[in-house]
Structure formats: structure tokens, C-alpha cells
Design brief:
By secondary structure, the chain is of the alpha/beta class. The chain has one domain: P-loop containing nucleotide triphosphate hydrolases (Rossmann fold, 3-Layer(aba) Sandwich), CATH 3.40.50.300. 50% of the residues lie in helices and 12% in strands. Strands 2-3-1-4-5 form a five-stranded parallel sheet, sandwiched between helices. It binds thymidine-5'-phosphate (TMP).
């Protein structure tokens, strides 16, 4: 099925909230419904932005100031929007994105302490009207999420080396969690807080009931894909 303009769905949340598994399930459902879609992520999603991702998320000696971090995130986002997201939406494909601009507001704003109006200026310039139609914010206590994320093994079998944020102190991750709650409160039509302490099936069903309210034409198989 191809719509005149694609649907843009972003997933947000702290480390170890289970975004990847839920995104995989959603994409499997979209596929089974015949909905043309792409799965992508931030920072990253195209060659140039993935280069910037390595600088930003790998644990290294880079100790960016928050402002540089924000600019690099937005540089990656600009490449991603121009080369991947906008063309896909224009072609009527759905875009399922692991993190987007709410992460800048939360990580560089609420958690790093940057002035929120500066972050909004970048958002207005780089993202403009290409905002997600729907955002799922997966909420998990960092005392649970961080150890889960540290134990994560990538799909290629390698141990997670993207630990620059993950290794920050627990108080940072608490601010991230509270920041995402504020994002949901400030934009309740678009953003939905999902309790990610539940088991994966329940989390998925909670998300799907919201998705189906917005897009009732979707028919979701009773046996959800794993
Ligand atoms: P993840 O894709 O494994 O969640 O890792 C990406 C990390 O980058 C995560 O710790 C959040 C961080 N991040 C920001 O700080 N600002 C942003 O704008 C984005 C997209 C991600």
C-alpha cells in the first residue's frame, strides 16, 4: 500500500528501553500489511550521518562541549533528512526512525543543560515541518535500562561499543528519563509514553492500539511477529 505522503514514526527513550525490538516488530507488521516503509536511525541513517555517529556515540577521548554535540547531531540530522527521510516520505513510504529531534531536546537540553530555545532554533531550521506524525517514548527506569543496554550484543554479534552516553553517571540518565516525560506532556497529540517495564508483547500491544487509533486502515495480525 502506498499513500500520497508517507507516515513518519519516531521511537524515543533512554538507553536499554527496548526500542530496537519494538521497531523490528512494527516493521514486520508493516511488511505483512504490504506497507512500503524504511527503518532508519539517528544519529545516522545515511553514509555521511553514520560517519558523524561514530564520532558521537563511540566511547573515545572526544569530550565534545554540549554545543558541539548539538551541532554534530543536527549536521547528521540534516544529511539524513535531505538524503533519506524527505525523499522516502515524498514517495509515500513510511519512515520508522530510531530517535529523532526529541533526543536533542532531552539529551543536549534537559540532561546536558543547554538553553532549550537554542535547541528549538536548530530544530526549526533543520527539521522545519518534517516532524514525526507519531512518536513512541519508551519509558524505563535507568537502573533497569542501563545494565540491559550494557549487556546488549549487536545483530552482527559484536559487543556494544557505542557507550559514550551510556557510560555517563546515573543522574544524567535520570534527567533523560524526566526530560522525555516533559516532551510527552508538551506534545500529547504526537507523543505517547509507553511503559517499557512490561513484557515485550504487552509493550507492542500498547503501541499498536495507539497506532490503530491514528491509522485505522492498518490491519494488524493477531499473532504479533517476534
Ligand atoms: P542509540 O541509538 O543506541 O540509542 O544511541 C544514540 C545515542 O545518541 C543515545 O545515547 C542518545 C544520543 N543522542 C543525543 O544525545 N542527541 C540526539 O539528538 C540523538 C539523535 C541521539
Amino acid at each position: 500500500m502506498t499513500l500520497p505522503y508517507g507516515v513518519f514514526i519516531s521511537f524515543e527513550g533512554g538507553e536499554g528501553a527496548g526500542k530496537s525490538s519494538q521497531i523490528a516488530r512494527l516493521c514486520a507488521t508493516l511488511k505483512s500489511c504490504g506497507i512500503d516503509h524504511i527503518r532508519t536511525r539517528e544519529p545516522g541513517g545515511c553514509v555521511e550521518a553514520e560517519t558523524l555517529r561514530d564520532l558521537l556515540v563511540r566511547d573515545s577521548h572526544n569530550n565534545w562541549t554540549p554545543k558541539t554535540e548539538l551541532m554534530l547531531m543536527n549536521a547528521a540530522r540534516h544529511e539524513h533528512l535531505e538524503k533519506v527521510i524527505r525523499p522516502a516520505l515524498k514517495d509515500g513510504r513510511w519512515v520508522i526512525c530510531d530517535r529523532f529531534c526529541d533526543s536533542s531536546l532531552v539529551y543536549q537540553g534537559y540532561a546536558r543543560g543547554m538553553d532549550l530555545s537554542v535547541i528549538e532554533k536548530y530544530r526549526a531550521d533543520i527539521v522545519g515541518s518534517t516532524m514525526p506524525n507519531l512518536t513512541f517514548v519508551l519509558d524505563v527506569d535507568p537502573m533497569i535500562g542501563i545494565p540491559r543496554s550494557r549487556g546488549n550484543v549487536h545483530e552482527n554479534g559484536q559487543v556494544n561499543q557505542e557507550t559514550r552516553f551510556e557510560n555517563l553517571e546515573m543522574s544524567f540518565h535520570e534527567k533523560v528519563r524526566e526530560g522525555f516525560k516533559k516532551v510527552v506532556l508538551n506534545d500529547p497529540d504526537r507523543c505517547h509514553l509507553i511503559d517499557a517495564h512490561k513484557n515485550q508483547n504487552e509493550v507492542y500491544m500498547d503501541m499498536m492500539s495507539i497506532l490503530l487509533q491514528k491509522y485505522p486502515l492498518l490491519s494488524v495480525p493477531k499473532n504479533t511477529p517476534n
